[in-house]
Amino acid sequence: MNLSDMEMLQDYEKDTRLSATSYQGFLMEVLDDALGDILAKGAEESIKSHKRVTRLLIELGEKP
């Protein structure tokens, strides 16, 4: 299966959205502060990446 560049960007957008959601979900369950800090950082970085790829898709005229 060959994916176009646009399909790969759209797939990456979905993956970053799901990873941010997952990190935040796990964060709600964690009692250890150190682990919570790591998960919060992961959520933050996933959100940043999602914003970037979403902006790029919109600039290219695609729907995220």
How would you describe what is shown here?
It is a single chain. The chain is built from two helices and no strands. The protein is mainly α. The protein has one domain (5-59). The mean pLDDT is 94.
Q: What's the total count of β strands?
A: 0
> What gap, in angstroms, lies between the N and C termini?
21 Å
* Helix proportion: over 70%
Order of helices and strands: HH
Categorize the overall geometry.
elongated
How many distinct helices?
2
Number of domains: 1
Q: Over the alpha carbons, how many angstroms does the gyration radius reach? A: 14 Å
Tell me the strand percentage band: under 5%
User: What kind of sheet is the major sheet?
Assistant: none
Contiguous low-pLDDT stretches (5 residues minimum) are none
Mean pLDDT: 94
Topology:
Elements: H1 5-29, H2 33-59
